[in-house]
Amino acid sequence: MLRILFALFIFVPLLELYVLIEVGSGIGGMSTIALCLLTAALGGFLIRWQGMSTLIDAQKRIAHGEIPAEHGFHGLMIALAGLLLFLPGFVSDTVGFLLLVPPLRGFIIRKLLPIQQIAGKRQSDIIDAEIIMEDKHIR
Length: 139
Prior knowledge:
This protein has helices at residues 2-27, 29-63, 69-86, 90-99, 102-112, 115-119. By secondary structure, it is mainly α. It has a domain at 34-119.
């Protein structure tokens, strides 16, 4: 796990630099900077809008007596998207914008966590059994 994190720590910034240089050579340096600022501003707007929407929906579920566990995970992913969108670079912006797509977030959450933990369903893997002990004499 540590090796994977170390590789990501090295690889991701290099990839970001490569993409920024390629885009900058294609559209110019000032246009690249403007595009980075535009994606950060648009991301900030979308994060605020989706964050408030998630919070309001969670409050409605609480008012109906439901546990909004899934909304907490959506909130964490929206926060991660915000971090990625405010980092300079087009690769992190792309991943950040993808995390702002609610169906994609839901898919990721369902893959990471079991359904019964997310939906609050009372599913169980317990099988009802009865143990009968026979009194055998050991010699």
